[in-house]
Amino acid sequence: MDRIAGAYSNAARSIEPIGRILLIPYVALRAALQLTHYNTLNVLSYTKLFILYHYNMILMINGAKEDEITFKDSWDQKKRFNLTRTFNERRPVAENVKDWFEAPSGFQDFNDKSWKRTEYYYERYIVHAPICYIKRITFAGNKTAPYLFDPISENTISEDESLQLLEAETKFPNSDAIRDSGHVIAPRVPSDFTPKSYILSSESVRQNHNSGQLVSQSVAAKSPSITQLFDDPEKPSTVAAPTAPPPLVPGPVTTSDPYVTEERPIKSSDSSSSFLYKIKIRRKQKPQDPTYGNYELVRQAIRDCLPKPDYDDGSIGPNMVRFTWHCCAHFDRESGTGGCNGGTMRFAQEFNDPGNTGLHTAKSYLDQVHEKYPWISFADLYTLGGVVAIEAMGGPRIDWRPGRTDCPDSKKVPPMGRLPLATKGTEHLHEVFTDRLGFNDQELVALIGGGHTLGGCHVKFSGFDGSWTANPIKFDNDFFRVLLEDQWNLEEVPRTGMPQYNNADHNLMMLITDIELIKNPAFKYWVEVYAKDSELFMKDFATAFAKLLELGVHRDADGIARTKV
Ligand code: HEM
């Protein structure tokens, strides 16, 4: 150890002079470098700070300006809103909508639903109407609901109101009417104004939309009063959906998690065994649900909900038939879109088409059947509804096959506006029935006559009024006989101004499209045939209706419709 330490100190002593010589330039160089680096760093950091500081200052100044603008805007908005709100609160309310705000105990939900629907109609269609008015109020439960009434704008207003308006108009010179969160508020309303009941027919809305006109111009001119979509002032409402349906008895539950999604087995013989078709079809199914696949039970459940003594002529059967027809009627064979497959009627985009007004009755009952038998697809259920209703009302047995599948979301909802309009002629009928749906004249006549031998038109839904036959809940060939035998005069439905044909006794009606069936000789031929031969009519109707239910349904070898084009 000593030897090592001795060798080390000898070596250190011998290199020491070299170290001393090198130390001087090293210290000098280091000091120089340190100095330079320090200055450079300082200069750089000051420059950076300078830039950042000024940049931030600029941002802050601009930000403050933006804030100022936003603040001013929101302040203005708020002031405008408060002004309109106080102004609106003093408007009169139509008598026939007042009680809509008082939900009877237990029916809050229904009340809400009907409001939502009304609001939808308002926002989408009636908002263009210069005669309409909307306001939000708070009622029991702190819920807000819109309601409509008619401000006849030319009339005089009170001095107080005119001052308020003047103030509003001076402050907001660019707005010709005061706007409240997107709703146009008509500026002048007389304080002693009493709104009258008004029905805007869905048919007129559709026609006006199709022709690109504003909604209410034609109809509103004739009946300038309140829009009322759910209640018919002359008849007590019979569409209180939540009150009518009988409570459904829940099916047997076999596990703690009854709605497990199960994979449906795909047989090896299926065309679906090709790799393209190896799609897993999933259905909501209760495990070991004894009802699974038992369509007779579903048929029975539909049959059970048809008789309704308070509804129209005592049955919702006609409504069910129309519902099924509308589920299929938007098929377009050229693009392959639409049709019943996919069950798209369950989506609001489709169901809220004005052409579907009034079909909530059938839909709500069928949806309850679905709750009881969740394994059936909506597409199957919605088609089966019409089939069962026709049979229950004395119609023919219709060849109905299950296997339609539901599309998971509303992307497959076809464009709206494809449903037929009742005020058109042959060209329109051919466009809908022949070009789009692929029916010939004979099928067209059988379908329209078969549909319109049932039920009737409701002022509150379509704007038309009355039924086609003396017994609207019996399926027979009466439509054709009445069409040929009665005298038909073109008149207007007094409350809506909608044109329709009435017979001399004014107890039966025909739509313009119905009369077209005797105006056009090619159609009339089949009307005469079916008026004479009830059996042939039943057979042809059943075939045409079955064809309707299969439009757009492309089945695999196992009968399942896996794709909705
Ligand atoms: C040109 C074709 C058609 C037009 C323009 C048309 C139009 C109408 C209109 C406006 C109503 C009155 C709706 C209401 O106010 O409640 C109605 C009712 C009805 N339609 Fe059609 N329809 C056509 C074809 C069909 C077809 C093909 C069927 C069935 C096969 C059908 C079945 C029905 C039924 C059953 C009702 C009565 C609904 C009820 O009483 O609730 N319609 N139709």
Automatic annotation (TrEMBL):
The keyword Iron applies. This is Peroxidase. One of its GO terms (molecular function) is peroxidase activity. It comes from Ogataea philodendri. Belongs to the peroxidase family. Cytochrome c peroxidase subfamily. Destroys radicals which are normally produced within the cells and which are toxic to biological systems. Residues 228-267 are annotated as: Disordered. Signal peptide: none annotated. Keywords: Heme, Iron, Metal-binding, Oxidoreductase, Peroxidase.
